[in-house]
Amino acid sequence: MSSGMNVDFSKVPVKDQKVIQNDVNRSLTSFSVTQSYNQEQRMEMREKLSMILLRILSRNHGSMHYYQGFHDVCSVHLLTCGSELGEMTAEIHSQVLLLKYLEEDMTSTTSLLNILPMIFQNCDQKVYKFLKKYKVQPFYCVSWVITGLAHDLEDFELIGRIYDVFLSSHEFFPLYFAAALVMHGPARSQLFKNKDMAETHHYLQNLPKNLVLSKTKLKQKKNAAQQQYYIEDIVESARSLMESISPDTLSSYLK
Predict the structure, then answer these.
(1) Which residues contact 145 (CB under 8 A, 6 or more apart)?
(2) How buried is 239 (Cβ within 10 angstroms: 0-12 exposed, 13-18 middle, 19+ buried)?
(3) Keyword set for this entry (predicted)?
(4) Rounded to an integer, what distance in angstroms lies between the CA atom of residue 36 and that of residue 154?
């Protein structure tokens, strides 16, 4: 692994460097494993995170452009694997699964997110028609897809499980996962109680907060909006969706 001294950081646009610094300065506070950090520990880890981001983007200049949330992805790798190995795994993750999201603009990101309504149209007409009625665009799940829900969750063990699944699956799997979460029984039932676009978008955007890692943490509450969803149920549903409508079929919608 190249050291920071051997990488030309000037290849990273100044505007991106400023955004990276701002994002890093706000990072490593919400994860369960970082909440106990003192200021010195947090500053040290932020410095490592900043260097990982700059080195990856410098080495992949031209094919990777920073997006807000990429620091969340690299944070997971840093906290899981340490700075050196974490940099390697984050770079491989980016090159294999995130390259389209790391393009200079959001054209490919928007196209990929627009696959989601196609999943609903093929697998759940009621959800599809409801979201179409209120003109709800799939941007409610953009952070789920581009950060592997690291932006949305605090439980680091849960984030780790999601990364295990996403990293070992097809690049479209986060989209199947998003669809499965929206279509999950209690979440789906509550969806139809929303009365306009803003309310529906807000409801969907916050669905990941109901995910839990183990069934022992599962608490079914009287209020459906407060119900929790076992992560493995969502993963299995996502796999079933991928069998019902293949990645090749979804790819055809991008053409």
Answers:
(1) 101, 112, 113, 174, 175, 178
(2) middle
(3) GTPase activation
(4) 13
List the CATH number of the domain containing 39: 1.10.8.1310
Give SS3 for 66: coil
Phi, psi for 221 (deg, rounded to 5):
-105, 160
What amino acid occupies position 64?
Answer: M
Q: Are residues 130 and 221 in the same domain?
A: yes
User: Which helix (H) or strand (E) element contains residue 232?
Assistant: helix 231-244
For residue range 30-63, what is the model confidence (pLDDT) as tens digits? Answer: 999 999 999 999 999 999 999 999 999 999 999 9
Distance CA 172, CA 247 (A): 7
Q: How far apart are CA 90 and CA 50, in angstroms?
A: 13
Place of tokens 């407060």: 226
What's this model's pTM, rounded to 2 decimal places?
0.92
Strand partners, 64: 61
Residues 6+ apart with CB under 8 A from 214: 230
- 77/79 Cα distance (integer angstroms): 6
The number of distinct structural domains making up the chain is 2
Are residues 176 and 83 part of one domain?
no
